[in-house]
Amino acid sequence: MPTESPVDHAYERQKRARRRGVRLGLAASFVIGLLGARTALALPQPCTLLNDRGAWYQPLAGDGPAPLPSHPESWAPAPRGNQLLPGTYLVRLQAENPNPHPITCIFLPDKLVALAELFTGESPQPLARTGWFLPLDERAMKSPQAVLPTVLPPGTNTFWLRLWVPANSPKIPSSLAVQMETLEAFTITQRRFDHAHGVYGGIMLAVVLYNLFLFFSLRERLYLLYVLYASFFGCIWLVRAGMGLTFLWPHWPLWDAQAHYFMIGLAIIFGNAFTSAFLELPMKAPRLARGLQAISVFVGLLLVGVVLGLHL
């Protein structure tokens, strides 16, 4: 009877080890799947908005929103259009919680709204307030996003949403549409949003610091122009994402509502200057260089006009 060689013995041991590994892997996958299913079943079902809505409108009168009426029908029906007119809007919302217990849900009005307040109709005090008109400390959840959290009891619940659009607003909402989701879903989405912009900000910071190092090392004006262009270009998206309001100017909501316009203008000005210097346009294409300078002057005058308008 032939004896088993050391090679065959080692091969059999490896085969048995692989089989045990496969069994353990399948068992672990089964357990993890059960835990995941249990967790998914434990999550609350999503809250939903019903289609039974009404919307009313009161023209602008004074420096703030109109008080809540005793009978919404005393106001005019909300006008339809691509943009909301200045004034106060009142929207009736029917929200349903299919769970047997209360859950926290988030109302999401138009992100360009100046002021949005959520009421139950039982009290003149709002449950939550948001909008770019408010400083960060006065907004619900202290979030730069337009969010209105509330605890939703089981069943169907009626809420009233008051929206205010001031005159000469730098941001004008386009509709009265409202979305709704659970606090857990909103938190996950917001965390991904913040992480993505954090990565973008880190990349732009690395680009700026590297070119700033080259400027101080080589004393080339070209690198400084690129640093200024990249800085303002990167700030466009970070300011639009609410990073400026969160970390730099939480008490200046009016500036935050217009800051990205200044970032766009300055990015155009320094981008034109960098392009002209990099391509040596004053020597190789003087007309094109003068054209870029004219665009930069025009954009600069627009920014000066906006600054003067803010102080008048």
From TrEMBL:
Keyword terms of this UniProt record: Membrane, Transmembrane, Transmembrane helix
Pfam family, one: 7TMR-DISM_7TM
Entry superkingdom: Bacteria
Domain (7TM-DISM receptor extracellular) ranges: 197-307
Bilayer-crossing regions: 198-216, 223-249, 261-279, 291-310
InterPro entries: 7TMR_DISM_rcpt_extracell_dom1
Protein name, UniProt field: Membrane protein
Organism for this UniProt entry: Thermoanaerobaculum aquaticum
Higher taxonomy: Bacteria, Pseudomonadati, Acidobacteriota, Thermoanaerobaculia, Thermoanaerobaculales
